[in-house]
Design a protein that fits this description.
With about 160 residues, the chain is mainly alpha-helical. The chain folds into two domains: about 50 residues; about 110 residues, no CATH class. It has five helices and three strands, in the order H-H-H-E-H-E-E-H. Helix 3 runs antiparallel to helix 5 and helix 4 packs across helix 5. The longest helix is centred in the middle third of the chain and has 30 residues. It is elongated and about 65 Å long. About 15% of the residues are buried.
């Protein structure tokens, strides 16, 4: 089942990238998708049934809006810190613990943290993320975990778990 799922994903991406429905393009796209899914299918999805659950796509769209909003807020925060004459920064590396269990969920969370201005995921060890943060506002792990992972984690759980 996961080979078929991967074939469909690759073939649809091929069609979206080429934007061409002529017969030669469809044949080449199918061959490329077939070869790619045969070569890389083993390491693809562990549970490909999750791929066909429509509610996950709804949460992906919601997550995109949340992520964009968080990035906008973080951009203004970093711009304020850069433009402020007193440079109000207090950088540091904090350890936050996630409740996500899947590797892909953790990867998306780490990338979301890194792509948000002011934070960079430095390392992941099991369920703990080491994050460089431009302004460590608290020494309480619960508080800064909520600030860093807060809105991302609950939506990624709905998407990937």
């Amino acid at each position: 089942m996961k080979y078929i799922t991967l074939f469909i994903i690759i073939f649809v991406l091929w069609l979206l990238m080429t934007y061409n429905l002529e017969t030669p393009n469809l044949i080449v796209g199918a061959v490329v998708a077939l070869i790619t899914s045969l070569v890389f299918g083993k390491g693809f999805l562990q549970d490909s049934k999750k791929f066909f659950q429509p509610q996950r796509y709804f949460w992906i769209i919601v997550y995109l809006f949340i992520f964009i909003w968080e990035c906008i807020k973080a951009n203004f925060d970093v711009a304020y810190r850069v433009l402020s004459p007193s440079m109000p920064i207090k950088p540091g590396i904090v350890k936050v613990k996630t409740t996500l269990k899947t590797d892909i969920g953790k990867t998306f969370l780490a990338n979301s943290i890194t792509m948000t201005p002011g934070t960079i995921t430095v390392d992941i060890i099991d369920d703990e993320f080491y994050v460089h943060w431009i302004y460590v506002s608290s020494k309480d792990p619960k508080e800064y975990t909520n600030k860093i992972l807060g809105r991302f984690e609950k939506y990624l759980k709905r998407i990937f778990e």
